Amino acid sequence: MEKENEQQLMTNMLTETEVIAVVGLSDKPQRTSYQIAKAMQQAGYRIIPVNPHIDEVLGEKAYDSLPEIEEPFDMVNVFRRSIFLPTLAEDIIQTNARFVWMQQGVQDKQVYQYLTEHGKQVIMNQCIKVAHSVLMK
What we know:
Rossmann fold; single chain; alpha/beta; globular; two-stranded antiparallel ribbon; 5 helices
């Protein structure tokens, strides 16, 4: 994807999103996923943690998997290693989320193609917090 198009997509995603399901969100404050999700929460987004190993984080109930979330959410933000993406993609397409944002270092071209074929708009290998601070001034 061309840089201008990618920036426009990121801006659209950040503008049109209110609720973010964060897959792999840790309850440990020193972890990157926690710090970024907290920053996004402070920027006004509602965070829904998705992690089978925790009950809650950042004041929100955690879910074991995406299909278990009962309320609507706009975006899936992925903090899992790329090796888990093919399985996670199956869960993602079962949701009504329009947007999928894979954090820095998380990418898989086949998963990207699969998700876009199923109507998802996808950003890979980008930090949502950095993009938000640059694009949403």
